């Protein structure tokens, strides 16, 4: 009788141990999946950061080019005014 009880307890323990093993394996798989997901997020964030920096640099170059164009337009307007004055004298 006592042996039967011990045998039943042993079987119950084996079932619990197997379930714990399954949970441990699933936890390990989940940790690996999370690690992969985080790695992909990190790669994406680095790429986004690079794109933002490139866009900012492009914006700065465009702003500088716009200032140069504006200065050139002012010079042209000034030259046109001077030509107009010379034309009035002649």
UniProtKB/TrEMBL annotation:
One of its GO terms (molecular function) is transmembrane signaling receptor activity. This is Methyl-accepting transducer domain-containing protein. One of its GO terms (biological process) is signal transduction. Keywords: Transducer. Pfam families: MCPsignal (PF00015). Belongs to the methyl-accepting chemotaxis (MCP) protein family. The lineage of its organism: Bacteria, Bacillati, Bacillota, Clostridia, Eubacteriales. One of its GO terms (cellular component) is membrane. InterPro entries: Chemotax_Me-accpt_rcpt, MCPsignal_dom. It comes from Heliobacterium mobile. Residues 1-86 form the Methyl-accepting transducer domain.
């Amino acid at each position: 009788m006592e042996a039967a009880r011990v045998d039943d307890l042993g079987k119950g323990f084996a079932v619990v141990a197997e379930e714990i093993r399954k949970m441990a394996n699933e936890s390990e798989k989940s940790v690996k999946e999370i690690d992969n997901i985080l790695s992909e997020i990190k790669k994406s964030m680095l790429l986004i950061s690079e794109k933002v920096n490139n866009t900012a640099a492009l914006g700065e170059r465009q702003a500088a080019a716009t200032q140069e164009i504006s200065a050139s337009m002012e010079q042209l307007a000034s030259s046109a005014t001077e030509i107009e004055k010379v034309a009035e004298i002649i």
